[in-house]
Amino acid sequence: MGFELERVLYETEDFLRRNLASRSAREAQKRRAQRKLQEFLRRLRRAGLIFVGLLIAMVAYSAIVAPIGFLTWVVAIPTIFLLAFMSLFFGKSRTEEHVSPPAQPARLEELAVRVEDGLVDRRRELPGRALPAADAIVSRLNEIQPHLASLDQGSTLAGDARRLIGQHLPRLIDTYLDLPPSARAPGSESSERLTESLGIVAQELDHLLEQCCRDRHLSFDTQNRFIETRYREDDGLKGS
Question: How would you classify residue 234: left for phi > 0, otherwise alpha for psi between -120 and 50, otherwise beta?
Fold first, then answer.
């Protein structure tokens, strides 16, 4: 009876953790919605430019080369509008979401965005007790993105970041989710090991963020020491 009650409580905890989005998950979803809106506005702007550009081209042709008849305009304007509308669906979305790394190498900051979105999408498939570590990873991926953008893409640090973010983390999630459902049950050995591994990844991202910001920390420390040395014992700044 005691074992059965413990199992029910564990499964209830797991269910609540997976279905109640944390603050990190909500913020990640909000960032993704903003990226989707920006992508839509970019495509809408491109469609508008295509529509206006083709109209200008037709007007220029009519004025310079040969007049365009009324019937031609009647057919051409809906055709131009249709082409502009279809352009909304051309090209690959900049906000394509998946955990697995893309076939073509992406810049580190783009890779971090994709992996962050993919992890949020698959959050409910992870064991409940692994979610705090997963949420920490999501937060760190967002925090580290601007620093990855300024990182030398050919540096050793960039290579370490690419392997951790684009290879090791996605493979960990993918191989876990490939396990049969019985092996991923709440409290299973595989779930416990995933929780531990995600905790290690979160710690490694903390270390990576610290390395990326090392120069900024050094600059702050230098300015801090200067202020302390220059002004702490400066009697000229003290009130009379």
Answer: beta
> CA distances (Å), 57 to each of 46, 65, 76, 84, 88, in order?
16, 11, 12, 14, 20
Find out whether 169 and 201 touch, Cβ atoms under 8 Å.
yes
Higher pLDDT, 2 or 216: 216
C-alpha 46/C-alpha 28 separation (Å) is 27
Q: What residues contact 95, with CB distance under 8 A and at least 6 apart?
A: 32, 35, 36, 39, 113, 117
User: Residue 215 has which token pair?
Assistant: 């120069």
Residue predicted with more confidence, 192 or 24: 192
* Residue at 64 is within a domain: no
Number of domains comprising the chain: 1
| pLDDT tens-place string over residues 26-72 | 777 788 888 888 888 888 898 899 989 988 998 888 888 888 888 88
* Domain contains 204: yes
The residue segments making up the domain with residue 214 are: 2-42+94-223
Query: Is 89 within the bounds of a domain?
Result: no
DSSP conformation class of 95: T
Rounded-to-integer distance, Cα 28 and Cα 141, Å: 10
162 in a domain, yes or no? yes
Angle at 202 between CA 36 and CA 24, to 5 degrees: 40
Say if residues 191 and 185 touch (Cβ distance below 8 Å). Answer: yes
What would the DSSP string read from start to end of 4-57? HHHHHHHHHHHHHHHHS--HHHHHHHHHHHHHHHHHHHHHHHHHHHHHHHHHHH
